[in-house]
Input
Amino acid sequence: MKKIESDVVVIGAGPAGLSAAVSAKQHGARNVIILDRNSWLGGILPQCIHDGFGVEETGSSMTGPEYAEKYVKLAEKHNIEFMMETMVLKINKNHEISAINKKGIFKIKSKSLVLAMGCREKTRWNILIPGSRPSGIYTAGVAQAFINLYNIMPGKNIVILGSGDVGLIMARRLKFEGANVLGVVEILPHPTGLPRNVVQCLDDYDIPLYLNHTVTFIEGKDRVEKVTIAQVDKDLNPIKSTKKELKCDTLLLSLGLIPENELSLDVGVKIDKITGGPIVNQVFETSVPGVFACGNCLQVYDTVDMLSMDSKIAGENASKYVKKSKKKKKNISVKPGKGVRNVIPQIVDEKGITQFSFRVKKPKQNVMISCANEEKIIFKKKFRWVNPANMIKINVDISSDIIEKGQSLEVSLK
Amino acid sequence: MKKEITCIVCPIGCKILVEVKDNSAEVCSGNKCKQGLKYAVSEALDPKRVLTSSVLVKGGLWPLVSVKTSMAIPKNKISSVLKEIKKKHVKAPIKSGDVIIKNIANTNIDVIATKTVNKY
Amino acid sequence: MKTFDVGIIGGGVIGSAIARELSKYTIDVAVFEKGCDVASGSSKANSGVVHSGINSPAGSLKARFCVQGNTMFNDLAKDLGILVKWVGKYHIAKNAGEVSKLEKLKNVGLKNGVPGLNIIDGEEIKKKERNVSCHSALWVPTAGIVSPYEFTIALAENAAVNKVSFFLETKVVDIKKQKDFFQIFTNKGEYQAKILVNAAGVDCRNIVSMVEKPNFNIYPCRGEYLVLDKKCSSLIHSMIYPVPVKELGVLGVHITPTTEGNIIIGPSAEFIEDPYDKMTTKDMMKTLMNEAQDIIPKLSNDFVINAYSGIRCKLASSDAGGWADFRIEESTINPGMINLLGIESPGLTAALVIAKEIKTMVLNHMPLKNKDRFKKRKQVKRFVDLSVSEQKKLIEKDSRWGRVVCRCEHITEAEVINALCNPLGATSLSSVKYRCRAGMGRCQGGFCTQHIIRIMEKQFSLNIESMKLKSSESYLFTGRNREVKDEKN
Output
C-alpha cells in the first residue's frame, strides 16, 4: 500500500474539483492533489461541446472543453498534482482514502478533503417506465459521450424524454448528426431548460415539443421500435384516451441528475434528503469537520459559473482549515419555507453576508422572497419571475445576534 | 411581415411580435423589458447562431476534436457549414484555438478547435 | 459434415447442465443457442433460488429432483466455482388464519424428505429479521440462493472447456429425422446429431412440432421482478415468502436476497398469449412494491434500480390449476429425440439431476466412456473481494487490474477483458454484464458503458455496428458520425 499525504485532497476533476483545488492553492495550501476516475480532466465538460459556459464569469461564452482547459491550465500553473484513472474505493472516518489506479493501491491522508464527485443521471427505472427492455434506450449524457467523444452514433429515429437543457442540447446535436428527432416529451406544462435552448435546439429545427406528456410504454423485441406517449392530468397521471405511438429506434432519457454521495456517506457526512447532497455551512463545510462539498454532488447546479463560484469558496476554506481547524461554534439551521424546495447552506455558523442558493417549487411571476427567523424578517426581495429550473442566489446579512438567538431561518416565497 | 420571436434573454421567454419591413424591424408587442426589445429586433432581421460540432482527427488520442464557429454565423448558413465540417479530417496534434476551417461556407468566419487533442 | 453424438437445443440452465454432464464422456456434443449467449431466456430471469422441495406435490418428479438436486448443490457449486448461499426461507403467515397453510406446506415437505422444517413464532423471527412482522412462519433451512446466470454460464463454460461446441446466435428452424441421425437446419447452416435433446424452454413445443405433432400445449406464464439497490441488503437475511395464495400452483410475491447483495421482489404470475412477451407492466410493478411493503414497510420505489421479467413454460393452463410435473421423455415416434417439457421452477435446483437423467437416456443409445481428464472450473473471485495484497499482486502483473471501469460495483478493466475472453465467444454487452457485473449497479451502466464499448472497440477490434446488447437484433449503434477510412482511431 503506497502512502500519500497532502494538505488538501479533492475528489473529482470536474469544474467543481478544479476550481476548488485552484482556490485552495491560491489561499495557501502547500499541496493539493486531485483524484479523478477518468483518463481526462474536466469531468463531464469535454463532452459538452456546446457553448454557453462561463458567460457570468468571463463575459464570453465558452464551450465545455474550453472551460475545462482554462481551469486545467490554472491548476497546472499552481502545481496541483493529478492522479488520473484513479477510483476512490472507500474513505474512513479519519479522512483516509483508499484509492486504486494502474500504478497500485494508495492510502491517501489529507488534512482537509473536498468532495466534488458530481452526479449521475436518472435511469428508466427511477421512474419505472413499463414495456420491454430493448437496446436503444440511453440516458442523454451517455448518448452525448458516444457522439462527442467516441464518434459513435446511438440511433437514427429519436424520441427524447425530458426537456431539461441536456435533452434540448442533445435534440440539436442529434439533428446536426443526421438523426430524425421525432420530438421532446416533457411532463410539466413548460420546458425545464432555458428558453435559449428551446429556441436554438427545438424551434430552429422544427422539433416538436410535447408538453404535459410522458412516455407510458416502450416497445421493441430487440431494439426500440416505438414508444407510447400520453398527455398527463394535473396530478401528472397519464390520460389513457390521449395515447399516441411514436415509431422510433432510440429513446433518450433526460430525466434529471442525482448527486453522487456514496463516498460522502462513507466519511459520515449528514445528507439533505431533498437535495440528495451533504448538509453544509456557509463555507461549504459538511457536518464532518475538514470535509467540504461542492459542485453537483452538493446540489445540481444550472450553470457552471455558479458552481465554480461556490467551489472556490469550498477550496479556499479547505485550505484555511489546514492551517487552523475551527472550533465547534454555535450555529443556526436554514430551512426551505413555503414555496421553496431547498436552500443551501443548511447551516450558518458565522456572522456576515451569507449567500444562499435556493430553488422554488413552482414557476411564478412577481413574488417576494423573504428570509426570517421566528421573530423577524431579515431579508426581503422582489423577483419578477422565479422558476424551479433556475437556482436563485441571495445575499443575506446575518448578524451575530441572529446566530446567538439560535432560531432557525426560513427562506420562503409569497 | 409579422414574425413571432421567443425572447431568450431571461427565462420568462416572452413571445414578442415584430413587424419586418425591408431592412428594418419594429416591435409591435410582447416584450417586458428593453433587452428583449433589442434581441427581438436583431433576431427578426438577422438571426445568427454560434455553431458547435466535431471534426474527425487522425492519429490522435481521441477520434474527434470539438469545434465551434469563431463567431455567430447567419442562421441560414447552418446546413452548409455542417456539411463542410462533416467532410473535414485533421491530423493530431490539435491545439484548442487552432483554425480548422478558414472562412467556412463563405461566411468569413472560421471554424476553430475547442479542445486539445494530442498524438496517440 | 460432422455428426455430433448429441445435439442439445437450448443453452439455458438445463441445456448447459446437460452439456456439462455429457462433456465428461468421450462423445461429441453440440449446443445450439439462438441467443447471443447462454442463459438468454428464462434461465437468467428468475429468482435464483435453490429450492428445498416443499413446494412440489409428494411423489412428483419436481419434488424428487428438487430434493435430490438440493442435496447435490453445494458440491456442484464448488466444482463450478460459483457462490451459493444457504440463507434459508421463511414462509410467513401474516395472521393466525394462515397458520394451517404453513402446516400444510410443512407436511408436503416432510413427505418429500425435506429436513429441518420448523414452524416458528413471529416474536422469534423478529429477533433474526427485525424488519419482518408476521404471526409465525415455516422456517426452511435448506433453501439457498445462487446467481442463475452465473450458474448457467459456469455450466456452459465448463462444458465448452471440456470440448462441447457451442453455436451461439444459431436458431433451429427445422429438423428432419434420417435413419441414424437428425438433420438440424439452423439460420447458420445445417448440422447433424445422432441424438437430439430438446431443452429449448418456452420454444420446446416449436421444436417438437418440427418432427411430430405435439401432444401437449404450453401456457406461457410471465413473472415480473423488481431489483432493489444494495443499500437495502441489510433489511433481510433470509428469503421471505408469504404463504402461497393458490394450492401449489403459483408461488406468490417473494422478497429474495441475491448472492451479490441486492434484493429482488417477485415474481408475479400472469398467464399470457405471447411466449416472448417479456414486458414489465405498470400495474405489476406497482403490485410487487405494494405487496413487498406489506411485509417490509421500509421498502419503496426509491430503491428500485431495475425491473425484469421471465417466462415460465407451463404445461397446465390457469383453468387447469397451472401446475404440471416435469415431462422428460424420449419420443416414441422419433426415437433419439429427448424432450424436456415444462421445465419451470424448481428446474434450476433440479438441473444436475435432470442432466444425469438425460445421460442415462443417452446411454440407451450409445456407450459412454469417461474422459481421461475432466477439467473443473475454478472460482473467479471478484477483484473487490480479494485481499489488498492479492489486489496489489494482480495490478503489478497487469496494470489493467488497477483501472476501475464500473463505479457502482468497482469492476476493473481486467475483469471486463476476462469476461470478453470467455470460452463461448459471447461478446454482447450483456455477456460482459452477466460475467463480471459491470452495469448492474445503481447507475445501470451510466458510467461503465462507454468504457466497456471502448475496450470492445480497441482491445477486441469489434465492429461498432455489430455490437449488441443481448439478442442478435439488439444492435447498440447505427454507425459512426464521421467516416473513418482506415480505422486508426
Notes: Residues 52-113 of chain B form a domain with the CPE0013-like fold fold (CATH 3.10.530.10).
